[in-house]
Amino acid sequence: MRVLFLCHNHPGLQPGGTEVFARGLFRELRDRHGVEGMFLAAVTGAHRERRPGTLLQGIGDAPDEALVWLGHFDRFGLAQPDTYGLASLAPAIEALRPDIVHVHHLLQFGVETVDLIRRAAPQARLIFTAHDFFPLCAQEGQLLTTDGRLCAGPSLDRCQACFPGRSGADFVMRELQMRDVLGEFDRILTPSAFARDRYLAAGYPGRQVQVMPNGIAAPPAVPRRAAPDGRRDRFGFFGHVNRFKGGLVLLDASRRLSAEGIVHGVTLHGGAAYQSDAFMAGFSTALEAAPAARHTGPYDAVGLPGLMAQVDWVVVPSIWWENAPLVIQEAFLHRRPVICSEIGGMAEMVRDGVDGLHAPVGDPAGLARVMRRAIETEGLWETLAGNTRPPLTIEAATLRHLDLYRDTLGARAA
């Protein structure tokens, strides 16, 4: 079997959950199951400078992983007008002759790439993993309004409220384009039932959309000892620092706990690349106002176990629905209870009062109350930590994907 993976970035340049899982899945297929193929990651000038002579670039020592430099992307329509850049992919795809093309994101590649693949590899079966809601939502795929309210799903009125300068025809055409492009895929996978239901509610056919959980590498879990007085009052945030991930909510909650005299510690681990000056100014102000909190900056997978060893609780305070956050799987791997917002894929993964606690979304006072309960309720940490379930491993996820690929190829043969 030969496979071609497309992802909107490479974990060596941007270690987001989608990138980490997609590359991990590709390598498992290659190393454990003898699958041949190529992992193509799209980049722009923000990640790599354009090299003369070709838009394809190598990365590291892997001969089957490459970057394709694509500029001029239209985020509203998920369109890539750089036809020269896309055309440079055709010879590589034709030479590979993939049986399966698995697209892990349309960002940077654009909807035009799907048509290119169909022409360059007409024999291939196409799989798309909807790691988020970009096909449904032009507002950065967040299903979150510009003023921070949760959105139940696309509609003409709701979408125009976020983009008052665009005509209704723009949204109608966008939706038709997305349906046409995704209709080319044999399967649409979602990492959570919540995400699947959002796509079904938007009108995508149930026979095409199915849940396929992500998996993670499983190094040895790191135990956590209680403080000498038995307190469990160390909270950790792991992830990109931006508006959507809720770091500002966590900092305000910590400020409130300090004002109440509650001894605790909050550590935010994660970079803040590509954020606006206004956001970073607000983040710095919020950090200064929370004396028990600190920001350590970016981290990598190698250092994660050591960082987990320093916290009792992992906090996921995202203000949008999320889908299947990698950080929740990482927390459960290390048997850390999770405090998360009570919505979307987070609430699906974390069982309130069983292996974690739910907090009101976007509500610093509500999060502070839940954090105080976590600190002050005797035996709660031990109960929740004892109920955590090991996450799906990358090995198990690979076997599930391999079965799906074979089933899809079998349907073609039939």
UniProtKB/TrEMBL annotation:
UniProt-listed Pfam families: Glyco_trans_1_4, Glyco_transf_4
SUPFAM superfamilies: UDP-Glycosyltransferase/glycogen phosphorylase
Domain Glycosyltransferase subfamily 4-like N-terminal: 15-216
UniProt KW keywords: Glycosyltransferase, Transferase
Molecular function GO terms recorded: glycosyltransferase activity
PANTHER family referenced in this protein's UniProt entry, alphabetically: D-INOSITOL 3-PHOSPHATE GLYCOSYLTRANSFERASE, GLYCOSYLTRANSFERASE
Protein name: Glycosyltransferase
